[in-house]
Amino acid sequence: MDKRCYNKNDIIRRSSYKINMSNEELKIIFDCFMNTIGEILKQPEERIHLEIRNFGSFDIIPTKLRGNARNPISGERIIIPPRKRLTFKPSKNIKDEIYKSRSIV
After folding, report:
1. Domain around 79
2. 34 and 57 share a domain?
3. CB neighbours (10 Å) of residue 2?
4. Each residue of 61-94: pLDDT tens digit?
5. Phi, psi of 89 (to 5 degrees)
């Protein structure tokens, strides 16, 4: 099975065609949208929940300090400091569309 890769220009090209806008105008809007999402997710709060209806939600969740971890190669004990973890959960609409193509008849 082949893998198809898409990038920002592909999204801009498809969107500009759908809403009859030039690529340059839509690129400015898209960059502004993505920068705003990035700014929200980079805020210093411990927990952040960003929901985009009909697309999905991003969550930033803090992890705990792990003092009992081991290096699997040397067996040496290491301490893993607390950090933030980013998760994405797709919306029900997106999940249904993805899994509809996998249904067995």
Report:
1. 45-105
2. no
3. 3
4. 999 999 889 999 999 999 999 999 999 999 999 9
5. -120, 115
Q: Check residue 1 and give its pLDDT.
A: 72
Phi and psi at residue 57, in whole multiples of 5°? -135, 145
Report which residue type is found at 46.
Answer: E
Q: 82 and 65, same structural domain?
A: yes
Same domain, 33 and 66: no
- pTM for the full model? 0.74
Q: How many domains is the chain partitioned into structurally?
A: 2
Classify burial at 12, counting beta carbons within 10 Å of its beta carbon; exposed 0-12, middle 13-18, buried 19 or more. Answer: buried
Same domain membership, residue 56 and residue 37: no
Q: What is the pLDDT of residue 103?
A: 55
**CA count, 13 A, side-chain hemisphere, 20:** 0
